[in-house]
Each structure stands twice: as C-alpha cells, then as structure tokens.
Write a structure and sequence with these properties.
By secondary structure, the protein is an alpha/beta fold. Helix content is 30%, strand content 19%. The chain binds alpha-D-galactopyranose.
Amino acid sequence: MTASRPWPVGVEGIVYGGDYNPEQWPREVRLEDVELMREAGVNLVSVAIFAWATLEPREGEYDFAWLDEVMDRLGEAGIKVALATATASPPPWLTRHHPEILPVTEDGTVLGQGGRQSYAVSSPLFREYALRMTRVMAERYGEHPALALWHVDNELGCHVPHDYSDHAAVAFRTWLERRYGTIEALNEAWGTAFWSQRYDTFHEILPPRAAPTYPNPSQQLDFARFSSDELLTHYRALRDVLREVTPQIPTTTNLMLSSATKWMDYFSWADDLDLVANDHYLIAADPRGQIELAMAADLARGVAGGDPWILMEHSTSAVNWQPRNRAKGPGEMLRNSLSHVARGADGIMFFQWRQSKAGAEKFHSAMVPHGGRDTDVWQNTVALGRTLEALAPVHGSRVLSRVAIVVDYPSWWGSELDSHPTQSLRYNEELLRWYTAFWDLGIGVDMVPVDADLSGYELILAPTLYTVRDEDAERLAAAARDGAQVVITFFSGIVDENDHVRLGGYPGAFRDLLEVRTEEFYALQEDEVRHLDDGSPADLWSEKTHLEGAEAVRTWADGPLRGWPAVTRAVTGEGAAWYVATRPSAEALESLVEEIAAAAGVEPSVPGLHRDVEAVRRFAEDGTTYLFVLNHSDRDQVVQVSGQELLSGTDAGGAFTVHAGAAAVIRES
Ligand code: GLA
C-alpha cells in the first residue's frame, strides 16, 4: 500500500506545522520563531501565501532579502517549506493600475481592494501577473534546499467562487462553445424555447447575473461547472510553470472540503494535484462538530483516492470568523488532529504559526498565541508535535471501508436550484444526516465520486443524486446486482446533465433499479411532520410512489399519503436496492441504516462503544493495523485491545481505558 502520490521532499514521518507569515514580524521575532518551531517539532511551514505586496512593493521591483533569510534559517534548522506562489491576493498597485481585474458579483457590485482575493480569475491580465509572480518565485527558490512543496495561491474560490465580470462572460462563452459546439446544441441543452430565451450566437450569452426572475436553471448549472473549471484552469497554469522550472518539487493547493464548501467540484480537481491538501475548521456552534470534521476528512481521503493527504490548516483553538468563536476544550485539539490522521491525513498543519498582532485575523488562534509560551495553546502545540513523532510508523497506511457514500457536486448545485418543489432541501445537510447515522453506529465510510469503482463496497448510499448520467446510474445498478445493498434517497435521478427531467415518472434514472414509480412530489411545509408506520416522524419531503416490483419497508401512517410507501426495497441479482423517499428523523434513520448494514453484513470497527467514542483503523502494507480511539464523551471508555499504545509507549493488553476526552492509538498485534 505504498502511496502513489508524491510527498513533500525531505519530510520524514508525519508532516507537522502551519502557515508561517514572517512578513508580519520584525527580525527578532523571526529568530525566535525558528527556535520555537524546533521546540514544537515542526517540520513543514507554508510561507509567503499573502506576501505579494511585500515581495513586489512596486511593479517589477522586488524585495527578497527577508524571504531569502527566512528560507535559509528554516533550512539550517531542518524545517522544510511549502512555498506559496504568493499570488493569493493582488497588491494595491496592481488593482489601482488595473481595476478591470477586480471581481464582480451577481448584482454588478465590484469587489474592491482592501480585503483579500480581489481578482477575477478569468481576467487574462490578472493571470499574466500571477504567472509572472509564480515564475519569479520558482526561479528564485527552486533550488533552495528548504523547498519541499509548492503551495499554489490559497483556497482558490474561497471568497469569490463565482465571478460575473465581463472577463467571466468571455471565458464562459468559450467554455460553452467547447462543450456544445454549436449554438443550436446549447439552445437544446438549456431548453431556451422556454420564456423566449433562444440565443442566436454565443456572443449573446452572459453569466447568470441578477435577473427579474429565476435565471435559466441549465445556464446556472453550467455556470457552476464553468466556475469550478475556471479556478482549476488557473491552478493548472500556475502549476505548469512550477513543473517546468522545478519538476522535482510536488505541487498542491489547499482545498476546503467540508459540509460548507459547495462550489468547487474537487473530485474533478484531484488528478491535477500532486498531493491533496485540505483546510478544515470545526463548527463552534455544533456540539458534535467532530462528526462533520470526520466527514470532511473522509471526503479529503476520497478526493485523494485513498492516498495519504495533508491537513493544511485547522485551528489550535477558536477562529475569528464564526458568529461566536469557541475556544477548544481540554484534549479537543488533539482529538481533532488525530481524527484527521485516523482518516488518512499524514500531515497536520494549522492556520497559523504565530497569532497576528494586527489585521482581520488577530483574534484567530495560532500555534504561538498572543500570550506566548505560558499558555495551554502552546503546551498543546508542543505536545501534538511529540504525538505526531510517535505516530511516524502510521505514515502510508490506509483506511479500508466497506461502505461508500456517493458525493456529487453537480447534484449539490442542481438540487438546491431555485423554483423547485422545496427551497428547504440542503444537499449537505442530507449528507451529514446520513453520515451521522453511520458514525453513531461506529461504521466507517468512504466518500466517493459518482464515477468511482464501486466494486469493493457492500453498502452504497447515494443521497439526493439529483442529476445523473445514464452510465453512472447503471454503475449503481450493477453494484446492486453484484451483491451490494444500494440506497437511493429522494430527489435522485430526476434530471439528466442538462437539468432536463427524465420523463415517465420519478426517480427517472433509478426507476427500474428501485422498481418504483413516483407520480408526484408532496413537499412538506416547515414544521409539518408526518409519521411512518413504525411511529417515527419524517419531514421535508414525501411523494406518491407506486410499487412496481419493490416491497414497502415503511409506509405513511398519516397525512394525504397514508398507506403509500415511504421506504422501499427491491431485490436485484445478488443484492438489493432501497429507496428512501422522505427524510426520516435522526433516530429512524439510524435504525434504518442498522437494518441495511445488517443486510450488507457490515459491522462497526469496534463494537459496543459509547456513541461519542470514535474508533477508526488504518492498515499498513505489512499487515500492521493502527486503531485510533478518540473519546469525545465525558466518561471513560474501556476497549478490549492487544498491542502497544503509541502515545504513551505502553503495552496495552486486555481492557484498556481511554479516559474521557482522551485519545489512544494502538499498534495492534
Ligand atoms: C482560511 C485561509 C487562511 C485563514 C484561515 C482562517 O483557511 O486559508 O488564510 O484565513 O482561513 O481560519
């Protein structure tokens, strides 16, 4: 199970570090930084992400002295650098001389200088400047011994996933011409016979800017595809420069895989990233935020195709950008970090190394807090460094799951479009609800794209797979015939790639597999709760579904659909296909998942644990397994194990106690 993606050059074991912004600090602080990094066991830092204006204070005039020194000192201390292209935020001179590179919102507002990421990614001029800066960086530091990895831009699309500028309009037209070839084909795909929307030439086409009413949905879906592709195209162009100058150094950019990031189809980016890096921030208001964290980590592993990946950013404690920013409790930062490692991250990094003194992020926690060394945060930073050193043998081992959840960005975009049966459907909430049911049962899952190889999975869940191609629907059907339990949920298979309804009854693409036919949706009002025949509540969605071979597993006990099926099951080949045509309560969902998992023969990784104890295994090529047990609950958990506990270095045999809030990693024998 050797990793097939490259790793930061010269970094041994688990990567540990953070974003390092030395340009914010005087020299004496930078000197102390290197000392403290050594004390904490840091081996990789991301440098110069937002340093463009410092490195090129005036067009064509560079000041590299400070960065040369930083690179040298880090190198001498044995700390490697993920060096940025420094292009994440254009300097004021650039936007002043060329305001035409600024991004524009849907309603025509120009987003100005003064924050960050103030560029229209489709602007040819901006791209030219970014390419030039990237080449300058590559040529200056390409041979530097501290250089281990290239960090392209930063969180591409974070603040401006969609730009509606004239540059975007031009690029969108080119993208559409490539996709459709002729304007007739586009008219057909967009269904422009509706509302007098027929286009005579590609020149007439615009991004879906603010309009008197709903812009064309196919246009909106294509604009989402285009916007994701456009950011990727920018990444590729910068990466190609880096590859040309420094073919020996791998390249990445920090993705934002989480339940909150909708607009970048990261599965389609995967092949272009030498290694996958993700940023994740805990949702402070969620008392069980560790579940969303785990889902994001599983998603990062999915994008990495199962290879080790790097958590490029998370926080040591509170962030500054949520409505109420919560400091992490005892053990929480360690558990968060180890949950990522358990799910395939072989690198744990933070935003940021030293907490800023000025600027918008001064109240965001860091590895070195305002309070300095005599703080819990610093103690935790040092302790995590030791822990990750002890976990070096885990590097390269893999997570193996028998359950797959299909995640599909176009379905996320499409299912949440306007003018639908309900405006309350949130694709990411559906994902998280199902994921939570598996979490509570202690069953590990892979998060996979719709075109993944499904052959190794016993249970495959596709929540709200709204837009689906025939071949992908067929792959799910084949998996069921070959023995898997396949679960499809409401508002799946409804439209083709162009957002045209599949006629003849819902859920179009899955009607034959599921052996059902829905004639009409019955969306439920806010707070309208109906009941299933087992007494459990369900909300949001119901539909009038005919059984056409399938059996009813649950039926409606009340409301206008009383007696009609709400959950169905059809035996097909060696497996079965389940249809969940509503949104069951969390409890009902869990019992349904339990039933389906039993049919699939899938069991928890460690049976009998408290629901807030996370247990995940990583499997090494030599047969060694590493069991991560993270106790998020407030009571001690006894686990039956045999092997060595790596964090304490003690032998663990028989009943081993993982204390409330604590974590353990057992090398099993
Ligand atoms: C993102 C950015 C960082 C920083 C953090 C704060 O992840 O990449 O520069 O702003 O958010 O949480």
